[in-house]
């Protein structure tokens, strides 16, 4: 038997076996997700699960939805955006930066009043709440009330209850909701307004009240594939977001799933 043809058939057989044995690695791709800071714990779990299930590499960038949306508008190379409110996703849709037909309402949440002192008495959040009295000389930690979703929801709730004007000078605004949580956890602010899921992730704070759902716009986290490129890995991640593994990760952190 001639040596050269035998080697060619052997090489071809080896290549075919390698392709059959390692299809995920051959098709692997990178997916970059820009996600609201309040999703930090859930996304850490989802990142590990998605990579193990698909072979794709996932990079998650966490910040305030407003900051992430502006980065996307300026050309940041993100593939998927998960916002903590519809407004910033609306802005990207208006700019033609969202792949048509991929947007979905993914999650819901609640906003709560938290305290650093574990002995702080729970309160009913209503128009007669003496929030200024609870604060004393301290500050109320909130995410940016004109830009960051958690801050926007929090200010809307305080406004609707008639509480904003009495405490506005004492509000300490932060770049994102996790920074507001950190201020309270460290004792630098006695009280703060954050998402229920943030409070659940931090042992050094105590929830002392939940804002009525009708005191602020519905808290909705939309997710969408961005229009800069179209890959199988992006489609796989969007599907994974509503699958059983991601659902369990979100629910363990206290989110309510909206997408089926």
TrEMBL record:
| Record key words, sorted | Cell membrane, Membrane, Metal-binding, Molybdenum, Signal, Transport, Tungsten
> Which Pfam family, any one of them, does this sequence belong to?
SBP_bac_11
Where is the secretion signal located? Answer: 1-28
Question: Which sequence ranges are marked TM in the entry?
Answer: none
Q: Which family does it belong to?
A: Belongs to the bacterial solute-binding protein ModA family.
Q: Summarize the subunit comment.
A: The complex is composed of two ATP-binding proteins (ModC), two transmembrane proteins (ModB) and a solute-binding protein (ModA).
For this entry, the protein name equals Molybdate-binding protein ModA
Protein species of origin:
Rhodovulum marinum
Q: What is the lineage of its organism?
A: Bacteria, Pseudomonadati, Pseudomonadota, Alphaproteobacteria, Rhodobacterales
